[in-house]
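To the wet lab folks,

You asked to see what we're planning to order before we commit. Fair enough. Below is the target structure as tokens, and below that is the sequence we designed to fit it. If anything looks off to you, flag it before the synthesis order goes out.
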């Protein structure tokens, strides 16, 4: 199969490229190689894969990149939560407009198979159950509660403490920041595209991905990379809130494997979404401690700080991906963190401006 991977030189895209080549596929990459992210063609880019340099928002570039391909893995995006109001236009432009340009070109060139990088952030808070009211969807946490150290969401009906449960793909979407909104929009655009073209689309809702080639330390990096960068600089990882936030950490090699599995799936005229997760949640504090132990210290510092818009718990069910894609994550948490503690990270470019950054 000839595959176009957008955002191919980035963290996740480059691992999908490696996995696709190892599986015998023919790979063409598309990446902007923007100076805000890359200082040029990365040394890890494989010689046997073509790399088109260009912006996914440029119809001429996209048309050229799609020539002769059978399927697309769409990874190019601005990632992170977005840190202030100035991020609203670029997140919508790159993630939403870029996806629309890609889908329109795929329709014209009759490329009928899409694997889309989505995200668990579209769920907002994870799944909760109240002893009295059953399943509930708590609203965004209030600043006043967070300032008082009340980090756990409470039942919107009675104010009781809630139990967490695994979120499934049928959960209602509740995006709470600009990145999440853009990811939900990408899924919806892909759904429209399948209806108009009869193509198949698989949206992979990545949970907390970590591994080699993560960006070293930027405001848009994942928390694992930020902790790792602190350790490398001799600083203690700073854990926000009380460190008890629960997440599902999934290794990038497993994410690449999920993409290959999704290439062989999909149903004509339909969008299907799957969690890509390990199924073994851990707290942010546990992750920071595991990483610090594997690296050799210093120990994490729990600060009590918070960011408005962050969610408390997102615990994923991996069962649908296992049943329909045949995908289960293979990298154990302890093994993955031990590897990540010494893995090579990608140094960000010297250019400070926000621009197109492949996920």
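Sequence we intend to order:
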């Amino acid at each position: 199969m000839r595959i176009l991977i957008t955002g191919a030189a980035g963290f996740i895209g480059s691992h999908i490229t490696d996995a696709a080549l190892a599986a015998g596929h023919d790979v063409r990459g598309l990446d902007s190689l923007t100076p805000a992210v890359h200082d040029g063609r990365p040394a890890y880019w494989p010689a046997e894969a073509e790399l088109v340099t260009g912006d996914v928002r440029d119809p001429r570039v996209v048309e050229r990149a799609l020539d002769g391909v059978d399927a697309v893995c769409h990874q190019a995006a601005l990632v992170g939560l977005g840190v202030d109001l100035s991020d609203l236009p670029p997140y919508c432009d790159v993630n939403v407009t870029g996806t629309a340009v890609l889908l329109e070109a795929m329709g014209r060139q009759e490329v009928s198979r899409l694997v889309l990088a989505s995200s668990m952030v579209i769920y907002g808070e994870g799944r909760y159950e109240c002893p009295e009211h059953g399943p509930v969807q708590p609203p965004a946490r209030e600043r006043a509660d967070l300032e008082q150290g009340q980090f756990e969401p409470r039942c919107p009906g009675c104010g009781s403490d809630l139990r967490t449960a695994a979120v499934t793909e049928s959960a209602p979407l509740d995006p709470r920041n600009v990145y999440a909104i853009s990811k939900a929009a990408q899924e919806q655009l892909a759904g429209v595209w399948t209806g108009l073209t009869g193509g198949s689309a698989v949206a992979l809702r990545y949970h907390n991905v970590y591994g080699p080639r993560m960006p070293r330390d930027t405001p848009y990096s994942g928390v694992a990379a930020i902790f790792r960068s602190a350790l490398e600089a001799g600083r203690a990882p700073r854990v926000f809130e009380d460190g008890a936030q629960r997440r599902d950490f999934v290794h990038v090699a497993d994410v690449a494997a999920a993409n290959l599995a999704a290439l062989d799936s999909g149903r004509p005229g339909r969008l299907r979404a799957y969690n890509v997760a390990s199924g073994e949640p851990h707290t942010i504090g546990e992750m920071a401690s595991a990483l610090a132990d594997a690296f050799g210290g210093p120990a994490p510092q729990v600060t009590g700080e918070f960011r408005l818009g962050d969610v408390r718990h997102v615990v994923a069910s991996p069962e649908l991906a296992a049943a329909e894609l045949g995908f289960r994550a293979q990298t154990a948490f302890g093994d993955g963190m031990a590897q990540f503690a010494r893995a090579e990270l990608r140094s960000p470019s010297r250019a400070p401006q926000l621009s197109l950054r492949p996920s």
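Structural context that might help your review: The longest helix spans residues 88-108. The two ends are 23 Å apart (CA to CA).

Thanks,
Computational group
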